[in-house]
Amino acid sequence: MSLKIIGTGKALPERTVTNDELAGMVDTNDEWIISKTGIKERRVCTWETAASLAEQAGRRAVERAGLALSEIDMLICATVSGDYVTPSLACCVLERLGVSCPAFDISAACPGFVYALDAADAYITSGKAKNILIVAAERMSRNLDWNDRATCILMGDGAGACVVTAGNALKYSRLWAAGEAGMLYVDSGTGNSPFADAPSPRGYIHMQGQQVFKFAVRAVESEIRLALEKLNMNAEAVDYFVLHQANKRIIDSARLKLKQPEAKFPVNIDRYGNLSAASIPVLLDEMLAEGKIAPGTALVLMAFGGGPTAGISVLVWE
Ligand code: UT7
User: Fold this and answer.
1) How far is ligand 1, taken at its centre, from the CA of residue 153, in Å?
2) pLDDT in tens, 241-282
3) Which CATH architecture group holds 173-316?
């Protein structure tokens, strides 16, 4: 393990969409959404793009790291909702930042940021990169069927970023994936091939909500327990469990199973909904702004998502 985070940033679209506003569009209501998910409102892109949000978050992270953009020698974007299939979101961000370095996207759904941290660790360890900018940015509003009440209430748009460099903050990293696409998938957009057997899909998200929920509850607890066991730590030694913000009930379930106080489980799902890969870095940026993180703070970052995939990192802040 060879890295530390030296700067973070976030960017959210200007437009807030409340539960009441959604209740005017589909058969739902504020009470159902809050009690089932913990979401009160979310941000949705109007003029913003995945690349514009990613650029804003990335610039802030580099600024806070005290680096010049020219010192970034690798850019990794975690996303499943970039503006184009190609070029990668990372290349779009490079163009906006006016820098030139190796750049690529990681597609690992909601744990994308944790996957990117793991990849960055490998590149830094191998000496192939020194200062890596990681940006997780999602514009899932383009992939939602806004007539489907089961999914359109869940997601929001946003970006979170960090700069990592050589250090000893990362103590543990484990990635996991399996193949069960039917649980949660997004069609890969449209086309008009006259040879296809069926009409092209429309790029919407499809989710077996209860299946994902059960998988998530199990994965969060088992991965955290495994990480703590490997590090010979107990849950009391962790200052914050920075969990993927998909459903407040999943976060509460982890808290109850680990028997830890609510204050150790920061949330922003109430304000942003599920930001997919951007969820954890946006939360990290807010925790730093609130002064919750200082040298020595022990953090568990854990996310799960479509694939299914899961990823966990344990950091002791430097
Ligand atoms: O980051 C990616 C990972 N994604 C997740 O982690 C999501 C995990 N899953 C969940 O968070 C939950 O499954 C949901 C919040 C999506 C749904 O909660 P649920 O307790 O699993 O509800 P359900 O799907 O079983 O639906 C219960 C009822 C159904 O009605 P009937 O069949 O009981 O009459 C649904 O049709 O609630 C209905 N329903 C709604 N009612 C009002 C579904 N969506 C809505 C809605 N408003 N928006």
Assistant:
1) 10
2) 999 999 999 999 999 999 999 999 999 999 999 999 999 999
3) 3-Layer(aba) Sandwich (3.40)
